[in-house]
Amino acid sequence: PPPPPPPPPPPTAALLQGLSLAKIYDFATTVDIERIEFITEAERLNSALVDAGRDGSYGIGEGAAILGSIDRGMASDDLCTRMTAYTAAASDARMGGAPLPAMTNSGSGNQGIVATVPVTVAADYAGVDHERRVRALALSHAVALYAHAGLPVLSAFCAATTAAMGAAAGICLVLEGSYSAVERAVASMTGDVVGMVCDGAGCSCALKVSASANAAGRAALLSLAGRRVPGTNGLVHDDVDAAIRGIGRLGTEGMKQTDPEILSLMMAKQTV
Question: What long-range pairs does 251-260 form, CB within 8 A, spacing at least 24?
Fold first, then answer.
């Protein structure tokens, strides 16, 4: 007999799956600002984690290591590097036990950090007004939720990468503002770090978080130059919403066997 059909998605996921990037952009850029002002709490909470992680006392200290490299002239003090370092620092603190809360996205503190910190760094860099900052953060978090809606709640798929699709959108709203810039950046993100595996929550999450934040920055800069990964390339699609749905399928169906293999590799360490 044929296999039973998959269960329907939960109501919230079904609602998100029925949206489009264009609808989300329209909402974030036109809704009364008072309705989304609450998103500043994400910046407040996750910026406190950045501050806690900058001295290297938590986790693997990746954020502090990058910032130290800037001070020693080993890394450039540019926008993408700052976004990478600050996002890593927040994850270092989050995963290293700092007694501070994080604003989550899709139920994950690290995803919330990725959807927040690169956007706030870009907003500081550009010196935008409060309204542009709030709308960019709202766009980032909403796109991150939309991109995650096709994924399982837990899987071998590292969803820092889908959160970074939101960050790429928010960065573009800060630096340029148009829907076409946002669309190009999100489309290019589907051809970059998606498919990175989750091997459990740990201090190495900072590396995955920083890689995702850096990818978001690069996608935004590519988009601001009027460029994007073409839809003929791999997982990318000319229709950005189709590309996002494909990422959900990859995480849901394509990586089913990855999770038990990761677990097997981790368990084998105990017998060595």
Answer: 251/150, 251/151, 251/152, 251/155, 251/157, 251/159, 252/150, 252/151, 252/152, 252/155, 255/155, 255/156, 255/157, 255/195, 255/197, 258/156, 258/197, 259/155, 259/156
Burial tier of 131 (Cβ tally within 10 Å: 0-12, 13-18, 19+):
exposed
Q: What is the pLDDT of residue 216?
A: 98
- Length of the chain in residues, anyone? 272
Q: Between vectors from CA 141 to CA 208 and to CA 96, what angle results, nearest 5°?
A: 40
* 201: pLDDT strictly greater than 90: no
Residue 105 pairs in a beta bridge with 108
DSSP 8-state secondary structure symbol assigned to residue 198: P
Instruction: Report the pLDDT value the prediction gives residue 153, as an integer from 0 to 100.
Output: 79
Buried b (16+ CB within 10 A) or exposed e, 12-29: ebeebeebebeebbebbb
Summarised one tens digit per residue, pLDDT across range 225-261 is 999 999 999 999 999 999 999 999 999 999 989 989 9
**Helix (H) or strand (E) segment spanning residue 23:** helix 21-30
Q: In angstroms, rounded to a whole number, what is the distance separating the alpha carbons of residues 25 and 182? A: 8
User: Facing residues of 157 across strands?
Assistant: 197
Mean pLDDT confidence for 260-269: 90
